[in-house]
Design a protein that fits this description.
Length: about 450
C-alpha cells in the first residue's frame, strides 16, 4: 500500500526520534549559595573523574551549546598550553537555530545535528559526557555524575530553563505542561514532540505564545508561526494559528513578520499582542487570559518566561536580572562572576539585554575565550561587543527570509546596553527574500563550521 505524504512524514518523524534516542537582585536559597551537592544524592560524586591529570592550567567549560562550544574551542586556540575540558550531558548536539525549518520538514536532521567527539578531536580539547550536579568553589572542584574534576578556571554555560510560575506553582501541573505542550526552545525531545504534533494535527486552533522578558530567541516564535502556517497551506490542513503575545507588539523585525502574517497567512494566522495568559486548563483545552477571556484550542505549544539554567543556583552564582529570574551574577564586561575569581558565565544565562540567540552566544564565546586566555597568560583583554546576526524564514518553497545584524553599546546614563549599528533586511518578497533564504543556510553552515570544524 502506498503511503500518503502525511503518513510518510509521520513515519520519518518517528524514525528521526528513534535515531536521536540511540536589574533587581534577590539572594539564592541558602542551600544553593553553598555551591555544593550532597554526595548521597548523585552517583559518582566523591570519586575522581576518569580524565587523567591536567597537562596545563585546566579550564572546565560546562555546557555544550553555542557559547560553551565556542569558549572551549577558542580558549584552546588562544591558550594552547591550557588543558580544556567541555562537560556536556548530551551525547550529540542538536541546534536550536534552524530547528524551526526542521520541524516543518524543510531541512533534514543531519543538518542541525553535530558530533561533540569530532569537535573535541579537531580542536584538541576533551569532551567529557556527564551531568554536572555541583560545584565546590572553595576547593575548585566540579562534581559530575561520573566523578569529580578539579579546575583552575571554570565557565558555566548551561543555557536557559523555563519559568512556569506565572501559570502554575504546582510541580505536577508544570510537568504536564512540559510533557503535553512543550515550548520547543530547548533542542531535542521538545522540538521532536512539536514536529510530531504538526504531523498529526488534523485541523482546528493551534496556540503558540510569546513570553515577556528577554526570552530565547526574540524572532523565533514569529518565525515558527510563519513556518507552521506555511506547513498548513502546503499540507492542506484546515487550521488556524493563534499567536498570543505577552508583548505590546512583535519584538523584532516587526515589519517583515507583520507583513508576512497579513499578506501570506492572513487566513491562517491570528496575531494578538498584549495578551497575557493567567491559566491553562489542559483538561478542558482552554486558556484564560488576564482579562478572563476563555480561548479554546485543539493543540498548542506554550512558551513560558525563561530563567537561567538551574546549575547557576546549584553553584550559588545566580541572581534576578532586570529581565528574568536567576540569571548569572556577573560583571557585564568580563562575564566573570562577581566575588568569584576565575569563574565565568556565558551564553543565554547572561543578565545583559543581549539577544539570546546562537550567533550572539557564539561571538561572546570567542570574547570570553580571549578573557580566559589573557588571564592565563597575564594579559588584560579589552571588551568586545557580541554580534547578533539572525535570519528568520517566513516560508519554505522557495525559502524566503528576513534578517537583522547588530552589535551592542553601553549607555553610561542608563547603565544598560542597547543595539549599536543595527541593520535589518525585512523584505521577504522576490529576489531579496530568496537571497535572504539562501543566506540563512550559508550562515548556519558557517556557524557550524566555526564551532565544530
Amino acid at each position: 500500500m502506498a503511503l500518503s505524504r502525511r503518513s510518510a512524514l509521520k513515519f520519518s518523524g518517528v524514525a528521526a526520534a528513534a535515531l536521536a534516542v540511540a536589574g533587581c537582585t534577590t539572594k539564592s536559597s541558602p542551600e544553593a549559595s553553598k555551591g555544593t551537592a550532597s554526595a548521597s544524592t548523585a552517583v559518582g560524586v566523591g570519586s575522581k573523574a576518569a580524565i587523567g591529570e591536567a597537562k596545563g592550567p585546566r579550564v572546565v567549560v560546562v555546557g555544550g551549546g553555542w557559547s560553551g562550544l565556542s569558549v572551549a574551542k577558542y580558549t584552546k586556540k588562544f591558550a594552547p598550553n591550557a588543558d580544556v575540558v567541555l562537560i556536556e550531558q548530551r551525547k550529540s548536539f542538536m541546534s536550536g537555530p534552524v530547528s524551526n525549518l526542521w520541524i516543518v520538514g524543510a531541512t533534514d536532521l543531519e543538518f542541525i545535528s553535530h558530533n561533540y567527539l569530532n569537535a573535541a578531536r579537531e580542536n584538541k580539547y576533551t569532551y567529557f559526557n556527564a551531568t554536572v550536579v555541583g560545584v565546590d568553589k572553595v576547593n575548585k572542584v566540579v562534581q559530575t555524575s561520573d566523578g569529580d574534576m578539579n579546575y583552575d578556571y571554570l565557565v558555566l554555560a548551561p543555557g536557559i530553563d523555563y519559568d512556569y510560575s506565572g501559570w502554575t506553582t504546582d510541580p505536577v501541573e508544570e510537568l504536564r505542561l512540559k510533557t503535553e505542550y512543550p515550548a520547543g526552545f530547548i533542542p531535542g525531545s521538545e522540538t521532536m514532540t512539536l514536529k510530531s504534533k504538526l504531523e498529526n494535527f488534523e485541523g482546528g486552533t493551534f496556540i503558540q505564545t510569546v513570553p515577556g522578558g528577554n526570552y530565547r530567541c526574540l524572532p523565533a516564535p514569529y518565525e515558527r508561526t510563519c513556518l507552521i502556517a506555511d506547513y498548513f497551506k502546503r499540507e492542506g490542513i484546515e487550521g488556524k494559528i493563534l499567536l498570543l503575545d505577552e508583548n505590546a507588539g512583535i519584538t523584532i523585525k516587526a515589519e517583515g513578520f507583520g507583513s508576512a502574517f497579513k499578506e501570506m497567512y492572513g487566513d491562517i494566522v491570528d496575531y494578538r499582542p498584549s495578551t497575557k495568559l493567567d491559566k491553562i486548563d489542559m483538561d478542558k483545552k482552554v486558556v484564560i487570559t488576564e482579562f478572563d477571556e476563555e480561548i479554546p484550542f485543539d493543540d498548542a505549544s506554550f512558551y513560558p518566561h525563561v530563567r537561567g539554567g538551574k546549575l547557576l543556583e546549584i553553584a550559588g552564582v545566580a541572581k534576578d536580572s532586570a529581565f528574568n529570574k536567576l540569571e548569572a551574577n556577573i560583571d557585564p564586561f568580563t562575564y566573570e562572576v562577581i566575588g568569584e575569581k576565575n569563574i565565568w558565565c556565558t551564553g543565554d544565562v547572561r543578565p545583559m539585554g543581549f539577544s539570546k540567540s546562537g550567533n550572539t552566544s557564539n561571538s561572546e564565546g570567542h570574547y570570553v575565550a580571549k578573557v580566559i586566555a589573557g588571564r592565563i597568560n597575564g594579559k588584560e583583554t579589552k571588551w568586545e561587543s557580541p554580534l547578533t546576526v539572525c535570519y528568520s524564514a517566513v516560508s519554505t518553497n522557495p525559502a524566503l527570509a528576513i534578517s537583522v545584524n547588530a552589535g551592542y553599546a553601553y549607555n553610561e546614563k542608563t547603565k544598560s546596553f542597547g543595539f549599536a549599528n543595527a541593520a535589518t533586511n525585512e523584505i521577504w518578497k522576490g529576489k531579496t527574500g530568496e537571497n535572504n533564504g539562501k543566506a540563512l543556510f550559508e550562515w548556519a553552515k558557517g556557524m557550524y563550521r566555526d564551532m565544530f570544524a
